[in-house]
Write a structure and sequence with these properties.
This protein is an all-alpha fold. It is built from 4 helices and no strands. Helices cover 62% and strands 0% of the residues. The longest helix has 15 residues, at 26-40. The two termini are 18 Å apart. The relative contact order is 0.24.
Length: 81
Amino acid sequence: MATLRAHKFLLEWVADHVPPVPVRERPALAEALAKQCLADVPHYDLSEEEVREAAGCDLVRLMRDALDVIARGERIKRIPI
């Protein structure tokens, strides 16, 4: 089950790591960000399963959505987006 900690981790991680980029760069960057995010999970004493469940969808899709929101100049306020 996704925990509040997993939601908080994703929200903070996305805020710290997702930059505004042109639309053509987003698919590849979304993949890289998802991998980087999962690589950081053990440092926060969370499981990949918790984080994936907190994302509410595929982690790559979450990163694509986050990239779109950030590119519009908006702030991520909740997970899932």
